[in-house]
Write a structure and sequence with these properties.
Strand content: under 5%
Mean pLDDT: 91
Structural class: mainly alpha
Number of helices: 1
Distance between the termini: 100 Å
Shape: rod-shaped
Largest sheet: none
Number of strands: 0
Low-confidence stretches: none
């Protein structure tokens, strides 16, 4: 009879151990996915900075064109 409770405890411990192993694998997967998302967000931010820079250059060129064509008043100063 003393053998039965020990076996039952071991059965439950093995089940818990298996569940912990699965949770560990799931957490590792989530860590990889979050890292991937962080890289993608960083890439998007870089792309947005590059686009902002291009827009600034286009605005400068457009301002110069408008001044040459006398479409807007020249800046004072």
């Amino acid at each position: 009879m003393s053998q039965e409770p020990d076996n039952l405890v071991l059965v439950y411990l093995r089940r818990i151990d298996g569940k912990i192993d699965r949770l560990t694998d799931d957490v590792q997967d989530l860590k990889h996915r979050v890292t991937s998302l962080e890289g993608q967000v960083a890439s998007i931010r870089g792309d947005m900075a590059a686009m902002s820079s291009r827009i600034d250059r286009i605005e400068t060129r457009l301002d110069r064109i408008e001044r040459r064509l006398d479409l807007t008043p020249a800046p004072v100063g």
